[in-house]
Amino acid sequence: MSRNTWLARRALMAIGLMVSFYVLALGVSFGLLWLAYFDLTRTRHPAWRLIAFCVVGAGSVLWAILPRRDRFEAPGSRVTPEDQPELFGMIGDIARATSQAMPADVYLTNDVNAFVTQRDGFMGAGGRRVMGLGLPLMQALTVDEFKGVLTHEFGHYHAGDVALGPWIHKTHSAMGRTIVQLSENVLRYIFIAFATLFLRVTYAVSRRQEFIADELAARVAGPDAMASALRKVQGAGLAYQSYWYSEILPVVQAGFRPPVIDGFRRYASSPRVSSVFDLVGQQEEQAAGKADPYDTHPSLAERVAALRTQPPRPGSDSRPAVALLRNVEACERELFSMLSADLADLKPLDWSRVSDEVYLPMWRARLTQHGALLRRYNVAQPPATRQEIQTIGQGILPKDADEASREAVAWQLIVAAVVLALRPAGWVAETMPGDEVVLRRGADELRPYTELAAVVAGRTPAADWQARCARLGIGTIPLGVEPAAAEGSRNG
């Protein structure tokens, strides 16, 4: 059986199940109402509890399957061909290559994702085509890889997935509402069994649709570019989430708005970060077998294996896909002003200023609160054993805290102390996305966490660290004193 024949049969089965669900729901509802009517009019002593059960059950089912109108909310900032001619040039090329109409609306979103859908119309009919393109996705992919992703999304138009999708989505929602409405009613088991079958069939269709869209992307953009895009999307999604919470959130909470996309470029290209997420992606691809029956997408391993069967096509553009946009900073500002007025109103702050404006007050507050734990140490003779690290952590966290948490807060305090101790000596702290705190003075560089952790772990002899501190003239600078006191002692 050919792939298209299989898909057509499963799609027809899904439509049949969808119609059957509504027939079942209406049948159950009218059956319950008829039973209530019969008991009320044909019996001498109506069973009021039975009548109430029937009326409530029928009303719950009918209310649950009543169609709801979906309100379209713009997922991001809308872009136009006049604003972004190069991006729309690529979209137009792919539309022609796939024999599809251009989307009516294209939005930039704050997500490592791309999607197509239809808005307005009724249940997918007569609507306007909408495409969403993640701004961080465009930063993560090359132009060739991005072309593969766009073609994949046009593949959903090409195969009619977008037309069928709203019907399936509405039916999923109606089933879910029905089961919730009947949560205290034995009738729910009928609908749970039907919903389980419906999900298995429709999700199988969804997985096959993904393979077909991948195949179209391979023909237009090349299988290698599409496979590479799939791998990158897996890792970039995790990286962007980590980046948002570890790098963006502290700056935003301090009242500033950093350059998000440029910061993500720095974060994702950092060797420390990229190696971790590359490893995660490789492990996911190697570990993934066949998709679960309730997965909407095939596993990464299955999709990459299917792409290997397609004829190769050399790539031609390895620029970051974000290069297709004019004025990325303006796109970013417009996107975040649309997503959150509060975020848009924050004061812009370049990453080179984040250390002084955001982290310096945090380090000072940390040292003011817990600096006494480091009073007996200086830069050349810092805490040098794991036991000392744990003892410092115990002085910061409650007794029931685990070792990893104690170690983490101890290192935060130690790094803050080193940074503040060396500032009066001309050392400047830098905190770029994806990198640890780095101290620089002229051509000299110190990485407090990495270098001191190596001493604690025994990879660097303590004597070597002490000798280096002596050469730099920082060996006797004390740790654990408040910054003002440290500066005052040096000035005195």
Chart the SSEs and their pairings:
Blueprint: H1 3-42, H2 48-65, E1 77-79, H3 85-97, E2 105-109, E3 114-119, E4 128-134, H4 135-140, H5 143-158, H6 161-181, H7 188-221, H8 223-253, E5 256-257, H9 260-269, H10 271-287, H11 300-307, H12 328-339, H13 341-344, E6 347-348, H14 351-370, H15 386-394, H16 403-422, E7 428-430, E8 438-441, E9 444-446, H17 448-457, H18 462-472, H19 483-491
Parallel strand pairs: 2-4, 5-6
Antiparallel strand pairs: 1-2, 3-4, 7-8, 8-9
Helix pairs in contact: 1-2, 1-6, 1-7, 2-6, 3-5, 5-7, 5-8, 6-7, 7-8, 8-9, 8-10, 8-11, 14-16, 15-16
- The number of domains: 2
Instruction: Return the structural class.
Output: alpha/beta
Major beta sheet summary: 4 strands, mixed
Q: On the 0-100 scale, what is the average pLDDT?
A: 84
DSSP strand tally: 9
Radius of gyration: 30 Å
> Can you tell me the overall shape?
globular
Percent helix, as a range, is 55-70%
Adjacency order of strands in the biggest sheet = 1-2-4-3
Give the end-to-end Cα distance, rounded to a whole number of Å. Answer: 88 Å
What ranges have pLDDT less than 50 throughout 5 or more consecutive residues? 485-492
Order of helices and strands: HHEHEEEHHHHHEHHHHHEHHHEEEHHH
Q: Beta fraction of the residues?
A: 5-15%
What would you note in describing this structure?
The structure is a single chain. The chain folds into 2 domains: 77-159 and 208-342, no CATH class; 351-491, no CATH class. The chain contains 19 helices and 9 strands. The chain has helices at residues 3-42, 48-65, 85-97, 135-140, 143-158, 161-181, 188-221, 223-253, 260-269, 271-287, 300-307, 328-339, 341-344, 351-370, 386-394, 403-422, 448-457, 462-472, 483-491, and strands spanning 77-79, 105-109, 114-119, 128-134, 256-257, 347-348, 428-430, 438-441, 444-446. A 4-stranded mixed sheet has the order 1-2-4-3. Mean pLDDT is 84; it is low at 485-492.
